[in-house]
Specification:
Layout (H helix, E strand, L loop, with lengths): L4 E6 L5 H12 L2 E3 L2 H10 L3 H10 L28 H18 L2 E4 L3 H4 L6 E7 L2 H8 L7 H23 L11 E4 L5 H10 L3
Parallel strand pairs: 1-3, 1-4, 2-3, 4-5
């Protein structure tokens, strides 16, 4: 194959970012996470902070794409009244993701890349999860919160990802039919997770 892409959706505290970096390093390919926001900002000319706003405050009660509530792949130009709409900010990120998938081998974290690239060849769509105890232990090394507060934070982040996915794709974030491979990183070491993904690559 000319090139391949691994998309990784994940629960906060699952260690998926670490797994993704390890995988990309092992394969000698690109790794993209929040870089996509910066790239979309440069491509569109829209302030980078505005893309972050969509990530943080996405709400399924807000207007959806088109009449069917599904992302269609179209982007609106600067002359459009929808240029800085949340939908268009998502569309610009999706544009960057599609260009990456077309031009190089890479690992892409989050951003509904599994949905955006669902019809692309040579893509492995991965979902990484872990039980709450494992997530709390790992997240506690990053976030300075009491255990109960941290658990609420993780559950809130789960809801945010679910809302984001439903709003921009019409699909549930935890709909396992959207993924080719589901990995429990609490029961497997990061090294083992990398090996499992490599073993399932097209």
């Amino acid at each position: 194959m000319d090139h391949y892409v691994v998309t990784i959706a994940r629960q906060y505290g699952s260690g998926a970012r670490t797994i993704g970096r390890m995988l990309a390093s092992d394969l000698g390919i690109g790794y993209y996470d929040k870089d996509i926001i910066h790239m979309a900002s440069e491509d569109s000319g829209i302030l980078e902070q505005m893309f972050g706003r969509v990530d943080e405050y996405s709400n399924t009660k807000l207007p959806l794409f088109g009449k069917n509530g599904i992302y269609t792949g179209e982007v609106a130009g600067p002359s459009s009244k929808d240029f800085i709409s949340d939908e268009n900010l998502f569309a610009y990120q999706a544009k960057i993701i599609r260009e990456l998938a077309k031009n190089q081998s890479c690992v892409i974290i989050g951003r509904c890349a599994n949905y955006i690239l669902r019809d692309y060849p040579n893509v492995v769509r991965v979902f990484v999860h872990a039980d709450m105890a494992v997530r709390l232990e790992r997240a506690g090394k990053i976030q300075s919160m009491a255990p109960k507060e941290l658990e609420r934070y993780l559950l809130k982040d789960d809801r945010r990802k679910e809302d984001f996915s439903r709003r921009f794709t019409g699909k549930s974030w935890t709909d396992l039919t959207q993924y080719d491979l589901i990995i429990d990183s609490g029961k497997n070491s990061y090294e083992r997770c990398v090996q499992v993904i490599k073993a399932n690559m097209i």
